[in-house]
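job 3f2a | input accepted
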Amino acid sequence: MNRSVLARSGAAVLSAALLLSACSSAPTPALDGTVSSGKASTTPVSAQAISGTNIDAWRQQVIYLVMPDRFSNGTTSNDGLGQPNCFDPASPTKFHGGDIQGLRNKLGYIRDLGATAVWTTPVYKQVGIVNGNSCGYHGYWPDYTNPNDTAIEPKFGTSADLTGLISDLKAGGQKYMMDMVVNHAGYGARITTQNPSWFHSNCTGDEIVCPLAGLPDFRQEDSAVATYLTNLSKTWVTNYAVDAIRMDTVKHVPNSYWQNSWVPGVLAARPNTFLLGEAFLSGSAAQLKPFLDAGFDSTFNFPLRQALVDSVGKAGSLDRVAGSMQDTLGTLGLDRTLLQVNLLDNHDVPRFVNEPGSGVAETEIRARYGNAMGLLMTLPGIPQVYYGNELGMYGGNDPDNRRDMPAWAWTDTGRNATQANFVAGGGNPKVTYDLTKKLIGIRKGNAALWKGNYAEMWRPNGGQNVYAFYRGSGTNRVIVVLNTSASAATVNLDIQGNAGISATDKSALSNGTVFNDLLAEGAPASATVASGKLPVTIGAGKMGIYRAGATGTGGTGGAAVQVTFQVSASTYFGQDVYLVGDRADLGAWNTASALAMTPSGCSGSTCTWKTTVSLPPSVAAQFKFIKKPGDSGASVTWEGGSNRTLTTPATGSTTYNGGTWQ
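job 3f2a | predicted structure (662 res):
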């Protein structure tokens, strides 16, 4: 929640009283890459709370943010339940009818996109109508009571609906992130009259003491209040099998409360829960570090988001993005940076496609958006997608950024037409959706992009707007190149002289190593290492995501082809199927680098598992499917029989139907 605006409140609809109560030269390479090794240059940040395999499990996630009221109406019979006069689909500040059942009905859409974790805005029971025209459709005006009743907003559904949603997600291999609020209660919530002494009565200009947008502000420094709020969260995570918590407005609560009460309390109730804090601070990573030190596993990387808006959305210098990434790594170190959540927008800020402004041509907006989405999926950190991002949905400030998901969104046919209020510019929502899906697939299929090291290779330094960086994990090695300038650019990316690239990787990336473009959106299809450098000439507004193949073997040198691998397999709860093979693109037989697969069409414990991989054209590959964790306590179970084989097509795409697990 952004303290500088009435976020989630219907903004201008609140009274003045409520408002007052809240208080051109040639491109230049990176200097040496030494800041890119991911070693914190300040006081080291505390270790994350999650541990073991859960660390990599979260690094791999792609989070999809849903505001249930605006997503899909699955049960019209609950539209009029709860507080009166709050259901009005024509009002941007009232309930529109979306609910938990509607979300359950559309999980297949989210899985098809490739998102692996679903974050819903709060499902708490909400207070009544405010100022005659605003209701808590967003979930951030909870009607708390003492003792707590963990009531769900009737317009969203029931406890059984929420349990069913979480079960559906887990059955499909996805995670559930619950949104929580302990900073405040809703206007006139029951608890404000039951325990009036539990709230701050004076505003001293402090973000912690002053009510946010006039909302009743809890006194967490009071032990009784702290116990109530922590127990409230503990009850939610005890009653529901949540995988993660997104905590609202963490900067408005004393850090001592997080560190001494809430974090240990929640983790005692549900160990290894991923804890994500929302601190709306866009200056630097140093502003976010205190919340990580207090026990959160992650915060939203708002400084990076602002850099993406300034440099890509508003066509500024890519030095902003390079500098923000350097600041994050230098302050937090690589391990914590990989768990930071990156975003282009959310429900508190204008949608990214609105950032360029109405004077910019839609063709240019589309190009900028595609490049920003490409960076979101390739920079260190966990990407978060806001519902409608994948369609190019427009939206200004709250509540305009919370429009309803359109009925045509759910099918390829519906998306394949020009739609009002969605980015056109030579494309349509299907083009945007397909690009987003492709980028998510590239990220999931390359461990370098979700857990790899980062080394800056090129930044503008005031010159032509070109930015390039290296990501590497094991045998998976990727170089990303972006040119947002108005003309083509030629860069010679130094591999052997970059101090941020390991000696092992430098040895593997010898002269003759071919890098193939996985994105295939207008950049050169391949580039070959020569004299210890990778020369790339990239067109205006283009991006390339280049993955290294074996030395001198890049297939025919044409554009990468898309291969979908699928197999039917039975797994137990918590077990997943992976793909691994003889090529670096397939993990080079290293089970730690195996490619995660997504389940669908499940019947009991048996699902069809799929993953789409970008491979060079006309190359032969051997591979197998594996299960992690393995059977009978093993770390990995390999399928039996001979290695499976495939020769990729010369162009286009293909599907390998592996039948059933061997």
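job 3f2a | The mean pLDDT is 91.
job 3f2a | closed
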